[in-house]
Amino acid sequence: MQYDTLKSSLGRFVETRPLFRKIFYRMLDVLLLRTWHIKKELRQLKKTLPADAVALDAGAGFGQYTYYLSNLGRGWRIKAVDVKSEQVADCNRFFAQTGRSERVRFETADLTTFVEPDTYHLALSVDVMEHIEDDEAVFANICRSLQPGGILLISTPSDLGGSDADEHHGSFIDEHVRDGYNMAAIQDKLRKAGFTHVEAAYTYGFPGHISWLLSMKFPLRLLNISKLFILLLPVYYLLVILFCLLLNQWDVCAQHSSGTGLKVKAIK
Fold first, then answer.
1. pLDDT digit string (tens) for 61-105?
2. Cα–Cα distance between 46 and 122 in angstroms, integer?
3. DSSP category for residue 178
4. Euclidean distance between CA atoms 105 and 231, whole angstroms
5. Are 8 and 187 in contact (CB under 8 A)?
6. What are the angstrom distances between the C-alpha of 184 and each of 30, 123, 168, 201?
């Protein structure tokens, strides 16, 4: 499955339409279970961070998590970096249009070389590390860029099927350079990078996996077969969305002994 073509199409549709972009962000908030887990963690972290916190969105993509960070506090300052310059320019335009450019800035950067020592209280990495081969360099750079006591929050696929890989068809998401992280291995890498406290938990347990199949995998598979299926998507989602939302809430509230996703928090 290639996500880049779909992402590009969506990006072109919303890039000049701030209202549509906000609606798009809201749709991602509802559909993507990882967003439910990350937002829950960020709400808890907000209680411990200063009112003038400095945050890094490491691998910002469309900017949906940067947008959420900018809503956590008017005194927060956020730098969002991404390797794709066209997305960076697009996001800077949107945040300027919404009056947030004074405290939110997007820059083109490669996380394997990006370092700003002792700058940030919080760093966020959502669906990024599975795309980067030299992950240890990224972990070390982010650790150096955090202030003492700073926190890195990661969401990434686990090695228990997080990329839906098998020996015959490879990864469901072809852009991934690895088929997911082993929980112990990613914790070891973060400690090696300089983090003093690391904790991890599985996400996308049984309820989350079923929700993902219904809300993401099946529709995208059908869109790959024929773009005409997009005409049926509203009806399809009307039929499954309530069930998926209930499954998402179950997944967020439960503790899972296994899962296809990982949520990792590391403290410098």
1. 989 999 999 999 999 999 999 999 988 999 999 999 999 999 999
2. 10
3. S
4. 36
5. no
6. 30, 21, 27, 11
* Bridge partners, 125 (sequence order): 154
C-alpha span between 167 and 177 (Å, rounded) = 15
**Quick check: 218 and 254 in contact, CB under 8 A?**
no
Read off the tokens for 198.
């690391």
For residue 174, give both structure tokens.
């072809």
**Structural tokens at position 171:** 């990864």
**DSSP symbol at 226:** -
d(CA 240, CA 224): 20
Closest C-alpha to 129, from 144, 118, 141: 141
Q: In percent, how much of the chain has pLDDT > 70? A: 89
Beta bridge partners of 57: 80, 124
Domains of the chain: 4-204+255-267 (3.40.50.150)
pTM, entire model: 0.88
Helix-strand-coil percent breakdown of the chain, rounded to 5?
A: 50, 20, 30
Q: Which residues contact 13 (CB under 8 A, 6 or more apart)?
A: 20
How far apart CA 15 and CA 72 sit, in angstroms, is 23
pLDDT value of residue 168: 40
Task: Give the number of other Cβ atoms within 10 Å of residue 19's Cβ.
Answer: 8
Contact (Cβ atoms closer than 8 angstroms) between residue 186 and residue 156: yes
Instruction: Summarize pLDDT for 146-170 with one digit per residue, the tens.
Output: 999 999 999 999 999 755 544 444 4
pLDDT in tens, 30-49: 889 999 999 999 999 999 99
- Cβ pair 240, 191 in contact under 8 A: no
